[in-house]
Structures are given as C-alpha cells and as structure tokens.
Prior knowledge:
22% strand, DNA ligase i, domain 1, 3 domains, single chain, 18 helices, CATH 2.40.50.140, 9-stranded mixed sheet, alpha+beta, D-amino Acid Aminotransferase, Chain A, domain 1, disordered C terminus, 5-stranded mixed sheet
Amino acid sequence: MRIAELAATSAALAATSKRKEKSERLASLLRRLAPDEIVPAVSLLAGTLRQGRIGLGPSVVRAAVAGEHAAASTLTLADVDRAFDRLAAISGAGSAGARREALADLFRRTTADEADWLARVLLAEVRQGALAGLMEEAIARAAELTAAEVRRAAMLGGDLGSVARAVLTEGRPGLARFHLELFRPVLPMLASPAESLDDAIERLGSAALEYKLDGARVQVHRQGDEVRVYSRLLNDVTVAGPELVDTVRALPAQELILDGEVIALKPDGTPHAFQTTMRRFGRRLEVEALRRELPLTTLFFDVLRRDRVELLDAPLAERAAVLADLAPGATVPRRVVSKVEEAEAFYDEALEHGHEGVMAKALASSYAAGSRGVGWYKVKPAHTLDLVVLAVEQGSGRRKGWLSNLHLGVRDGTGGFAMIGKTFKGMTDAMLVWQTERFRQLAVADDGYVVHVRSEQVVEIAFSDVQESSQYASGVALRAGEALPRRQAAGAGGHAGERLRDLARPGGEKTAGLSEGPGPRGPASGRRCRRRRAGLFRSGATRLGRRSSPSST
C-alpha cells in the first residue's frame, strides 16, 4: 500500500467528527493491508512510530518538510517503515547529521502532502481522532470481533499493532495468544481527572483514596529470584532500580505482577522534585554509587498476579487486601472514605506530606489496563500563569486553516521574553477562529509552519507542574499546559520566570511563589481543587477567546 493512502485516510478522519464514520473508514483501510503492513500502519494512523523515538528534533523535521518533494506519489508503506528502521539504527559520532540527511532524503521522495503528514507523526501533532480507543473499534470491525475482545487483547499484549495483525490474519483464534504472562508487561491502567473531591466522591460513592505520587510508574514481574522492572512505556528498566528488585525478592511469593511507583524521598519523608527522582531512576551507569547518594523508595498500589492467581478481573477491594497482606511496608497510603469531609482530610494530609494530590478509586473496579477507567480519578490542585504568545503553529487535520499550537514565553529579565513551552489544549472552535484572526494581525514572520508574532497577546495557561529544561532558553518547561478562558488582566507583568525556576529546582516547593485563586469552576467547585496563580505578563492586549468551562489539569 502506498503511504499516500494512509495520509489521505488520516486527513479524512480529521475532517469528520462522526465516530462511526471514522471507524468504518479505518476498518476499510485495515482490511486492504498486507500482513507485514499491519503493525506499522496501525502505529502511524494512531500518530506514532513503530520504532518509537528516533532522535529527530522539531527543527530537523521542519527543515525536511521545507525542502523539495516529489511531484507524484511513489513510496509504499514498507518503503517508509524501512526508512524509519534505518533512521532508528543510526548512532555514534556524527549521528545527528546522518539522521538529518536520512530524513531529508526520505522527504525528497515523498509528495508535499505525504511529507506534511509524516512530519506531524514525528512531532506527535497528528490530531485526527484515531487514538487507541477508536483504533480498537476499527480493528474489531475489520476482524468481525467485538471492541471489548480487541481491547482486552491489547491490554494483555501491550501492543495494539500485534493484536491487529493477529486478528486480521487469523480472526478470533488469534486472540488466544494474548493472556496475562510473566515478563510480558501490560499497559498500565490510567486515571481520569476529576473536577474536585466533591465530583469524585459523587461519582464513586464509597471510594479508596491514595496519595498521588509524582514518581516513576513501574510494573514489576517476579518468578522465583528473577525480577524484571518495566516502565510506563513497557521498557525494561531493571538495571535502574536495584532497591526495587531487592524489595520484591523479599516478598512472600514466588510469582508476582505488581503496579506502583518509585520515588526519591528526603530524610523527612517528603518527596524530591520529579526531576530528581528521574535523575536517579533514569541512570544506567554508576547506579550503585548514586543509590547511596539518592536512594529510591518503592510504593505499590496494585497487584495483578500473586503466585498462580490472576487478579485483573478481581475488584479493587480484593486486590487491595491481597497487596496489604503481601507488602504491608511497601504500599501507598490508602484510606476508604464515603464522605467529602473524610476525603478532604486525607487530601490535606497528602499535600502536607508534599505529594501531588490524591487518587480516588472505585472499590468494585477491575484493572482496566491501557485505558482511563471510569473507576479511577485523580484530584490535584492546578496552577495557572499569564504568559505571552511568541508564535503560533499552523493547524493540521481538523484544525487545518487555523492557527493552533501556541508558543509561550516569560520575561527574561532583559526586556525580552524566553520560551517556556507550547500548548494546543483547551481550545474550542470559537477560540481557534478568534486567535487565528488575532495572530494574523500580530504576525511578523511566517515560514509556512510557524507564524511568529509581536509579543502583545497574553493568555492564561493552566499547568500541572514545572520542570527544568535545556530545550528552552528560560531553563524551565511547563507540564500539561492548557489554555483557559479570557479574563481581565489584574496587575502589571511580574517575574514569574524566577518563581518558575524555583518550582522546577530539585527540592523546590511545588507551590512556591504561587497565590491561591478560585477553583476551576469558581468557588462552588470546592476549596480543595483550587487553581493557583503565578505572575502576570501583560503587553497591552486582551485575553484569548472564551470557552464554556476549563477542564481539569
């Protein structure tokens, strides 16, 4: 199959909001794939590469897009997949230049439309609605299975592409190979954001609350003395956590699959900044020396298997009891509550101990690996900043023709601005129409992909945290930024860049330099999920256009 067919399908998906139409179009394409094309096609249509990250930065990708392209489509899906295999294999001295030239060569053989689509895949900016859930529905439709069957196979197999190949080539018998298996990690269950504790308790009734840690998610498999540790992305990271291996070997069981987090704690038991934890857990060399300097603590919150008993489908209350019996000294603090007042007390306790907030979980919930199950919610404070827009990227897919992704900046102390991050989240169609007109008026340069603007527009951005970053001149980067509705400026510009560096500094307080403000939906949303504001950046302009209500961060 030619790559042009995938690019055209992606564009068609972006052009409609009808889920059934998207699913049918995807299923039609999946049926036409050769067996060897299925895995790379599923990855690309979900906006990712089968090869994972291959060391191509935004500037390299954009330079390749801006180059020359073929007049007619000739490349097949197999051609492109092999090219990305070669790119992924490039390493050593001079590898950056070699990757740059290899990508430019690939893009010279694509048409302009194909290059644009592949660039957005590489930059994780494909916004066509073909995420995992929709892809599961399309695979099920193409293979004449139920979406639930495909979803469970993907949960157990950890790779949707492999599931697609199995069921599209073998039908229902292909499902038999996907089951819970030691040393084959499954995708982790995720939580949905709740507006407030009131919202979470109203949804769940009686619920298990846990501290929400800002550590590194791990899944641990044990058989006898063999222990393997896997990251959230299912990579083997055993070498990075010898303390974790020792902890699990000491537990009273021969076979285990556990879910939890590792986190670096200070002597007083409060957590270090996330980046400090990752500085330790991300190391592969001199681990023992760093272990003495910065030990990791393991806290588990779920168990999927104990000896020969599989617990995926067991209710959380049962799994929690098994875990408490198995590892009483290595479990995340948990409390069962049924009243908001009880939940608030536990939430305050979590914050006082330096953690992000709480998780609220339904006692009857099974472990829905790989999805944001309706039984798990996360509740934490959101922070907001007033930032200036430095540039805006051209939209793609459904947002084609609009200016979408905002480049955000803070004052740099010299009268200018330094970039601190990007966001395309939280924007309604009305906001996109408004900001496209506004930023066209402010434009000073346009390279066909990024429109640079005069620094005159202020936006309010909600974010979950700040981390140190060498990517931006500001030295810091926002995590999970989202545009909020327009509001009147309240005061002159400040020096939030310095306060953000305090936030990002290892050991820095999560709320340093921030003042309290109203909750996400005003005072009625509950005092425990209030937004926190920091620093104002104003250059004599109005706020970004309105939407009905901001979502939780």
